[in-house]
Structure formats: structure tokens, C-alpha cells
Amino acid sequence: SLLEASASRGWDLSLVFERALSERVALFGISLVLDHPRFGGALRGFPHDRGVAERLVRSPLATAFRALPSFARRQILRSVPVELKVAAAYAGRPSVAHAEAVLRAVEARSVPLEGKLDAICIGIGPSSSHLPREQANPLLAAHLGLGIVLRLWRNDFPVVEGGTAILVHPFSRRFGHGTQRPYRTFFAAARDGLDRDRLEHAADAVARDREALAHYREGRSAHPLLPFADWDACVPAVERLGAVLVAGCRDAAAARRLGFVPTHGVGAALDMARGRAGRPPRIGFILAPPYFPLEVRA
């Protein structure tokens, strides 16, 4: 879990680095806790106010909005005012400030989950989790769902062992010109499957690629090892799950290359999840970013 630092090797390494650095220079960290983004204008109160959602559905403008091309819909949504305020600020040693901010954010934004789910359906946003924000390719979409959403938990993993995750995303294999070039390399290495030894060999090769490193240092591309780190973040969830389904998948080959199962839509994916459970399943839905922590209770 990204929210339980005591079990994280990365956290331990960060503390070692912090102590070593503090022997050379004075350290001071500031961590901010952001409040939930809140829409303004006609969307004020959405999605938490049920009345707003019902009013939007009944509005004649909703029909016109759905008829618009996708780029026009995106432009309209971007024009909606959004408030994003700071809920709290912590200062001190970087590790202490960060830990306090994480605890406060989890307390303020987490959702209690009574017992584990048989399946979870995750809506994947259109843009990547990394800067610059670009259209998410299949690996970045998987990283959002498996490497971030399914690692935002406390107490226990939210899905039963061998359960099902459904990623709602087209999985179009489009890579941002130049900036996502390392992801092409990753998919080439994964052509015959995600064998760990093969991926490690490919990662060692790109780590020594001077041209790829030069493009990264010039700001023209992601770091050549970033796709491999993204996949490593997905592995803990993949190992706990029995299947990962991609709803609305347009590139079945890309999904299968990552070991996932492509499906035509959410309905078909839910039917498969019910069949895998062998009984009426408990299914949870996480609609879209901003994603929130899940506090799993026994």
C-alpha cells in the first residue's frame, strides 16, 4: 500500500537518504494536504449532491452535450471552474511533515469499506499520472488503476484473493510523440510476455542507452526506466488478483501483452466477473479521478 509506509522498502531508503543528507545540509520540508476538488457554476455540488446529478440528467443540455464530438466535450469540461484549496500544511523534517500530511489526508478523504470485494471496477482518466499530462497509453492506464488506485488502501487489500479488477479504458496504443518513446521500448520487450528475466534484461539495456538518457535530460522524453517502474508498481496488485479485465478495449493485443483480458464494454466485463465469482459478487465502483483511499474493515 502507498499509505502504509512501515511496510515499504522505498520509505526505509528515503529515511536513510534523509539522515545522510541532514549530516551535510540543514533540511526543512513542507507538505500540503489538498481538499477535495469542488466544481463551480452549474456543476456546484457534483457528484456528492444527488440533486445536482439528477438535474443535470434531466436537462435538455445533457442531450446536446452527448451529441458533441469528444474534443468539444473536453473543452467544455475544462472551462468549468474548479476550486482546489489547501486543507492543512505541515512543516519540519521532510519525513515527519510527509507522514503527518498523509495521515491527515487519509483521515479526511478515505472511504470505509466493510469487508473485501469480489470485483472492483475502476474508471481510468484520459490523461497520464506523470507530467507532462498526456493521453494515457495502455501501460499508463494500467499504472493508474493497479499501481495507484489499488495501492491506496489501509488495513488490507480491498479485493479478495483471486478476485477481479475491471479497468474501463480504450487501451489505445498511442504514444505521445517523443515524450512516451520509452513506452514503445517496453511494449517491444513485452512482445512475448512479461517474463521477469526478459524485462530485467531490457531494463539494463535501456539504462545504458546514451541517446535515451540524453533525451530525458533535455526534457524531450520520459526516463527510459520509467515504464519498467510503472509496471513494477502494478505487480503487487496483479499477483493478488485472479484476472484483470479491460472494458471498452480497442487494442486487444496490447491488453493481452500485459496479461489482461479485453472485453467490449462494462456490461460484458461485469458478466465475466460474476461468472468468475461463482455466486452473486460484491462489486465496487470507483468512477474517476480524483481517486480516494479505501479503509478496509473486517
Structure commentary:
- This protein has 298 residues and is an alpha/beta fold.
- The protein has a domain at 111-298: LarA, C-terminal domain (2-enoyl-CoA Hydratase, Chain A, domain 1, Alpha-Beta Complex).
- Helix content is 44%, strand content 19%.
- The protein is built from twelve helices and twelve strands.
- A five-stranded parallel β-sheet has the order 10-9-8-6-11, with helices on both faces.
- Helix 11 links the parallel strand 9 and strand 10 (261-263).
- Helix 6 (138-148) crosses helix 10 and helix 7 (181-189) packs antiparallel against helix 8.
- The radius of gyration is 21 Å and the shape is globular.
- The relative contact order is 0.15.
Summarize, please:
With 298 residues, the chain is α/β, with parallel strands linked by helices. The chain has twelve helices and twelve strands.
Give the ordered list of helices and strands: HEEHHHEEHEEHEEHHHHEHEHEE
**Contiguous helical run count:** 12
Question: In which order are the strands of the major sheet placed?
Answer: 10-9-8-6-11
Name the CATH superfamily assignment of one domain.
LarA, C-terminal domain
